[in-house]
Design brief:
Cyclic Phosphodiesterase, Chain: A, globular, four-stranded antiparallel sheet, 4 helices, alpha+beta, 190 residues
């Protein structure tokens, strides 16, 4: 089973992000981009990959322990960019304001899952993925993407709170991934 741990954004934020994505799609018509459906927007804290069923039961207690040590975390989507860079865009994203509590949550989560063999070597860069460029995109198409992403770099959503950790299953289908929440772990209320 393919799993990841994430936090979800509020419906208000998802609506605003969906409008930004729709506008980008119109402006980037003809550029080979696989756009993420608004119902799939989330913040991935850790990708776990393919996990054998026998190992899944050991994940939940660790996620619950991490969640109960963190109060709700204030977050705000802010800014835009591309991975690995604007000039060589492969992934279009919206970022989050720098938040030490969110970084600590991700670090504690990784520490809790490490004894189970889950290593995540990637540096935590909180973001919401809007779309992914096809590998065959031309330099001219990448330049169009860079221009449009630069135009929304000043984007700021209203602040909100992450209220829970969610263990998701991801099933890849020919048309799009399907995410199913397997378990939810509320952050403590202060």
């Amino acid at each position: 089973m393919r799993l990841f741990v994430a936090c979800d954004f509020s419906q208000d934020t998802l609506t605003k992000v969906g409008a930004i994505s729709k506008e980008l799609q119109e402006k980037l018509r003809g550029v080979p981009i696989r756009w993420v459906s608004p119902d799939l927007y989330h913040l991935t804290l850790q990708f776990l990959g393919e996990v054998p069923d026998v190992k899944i039961r050991h994940i939940a207690p660790r996620l619950a322990a991490v969640a109960e040590n963190f109060p709700r975390i204030p977050v705000r989507l802010s800014g835009a960019g591309c991975f690995p860079s604007l000039r060589n865009a492969q992934t279009i994203w919206l970022g989050l304001d720098n938040n030490p509590k969110l970084r600590q949550l991700a670090e504690d989560l990784r520490g809790a899952l490490l004894p189970l063999g889950f290593e995540d070597e990637t540096r935590f860069k909180p973001h919401l993925t809007l779309g992914r460029l096809d590998r065959n995109a031309s330099d001219e198409q990448k330049a169009r993407v860079a221009q449009q992403v630069t135009a929304i770099k000043e984007f700021h959503a209203e602040p909100e709170y992450f209220r829970e950790l969610i263990l998701y299953q991801s099933v890849l289908t020919p048309s799009r991934p399907v995410y199913t929440a397997l378990s939810r772990f509320p952050l403590k209320i202060c």
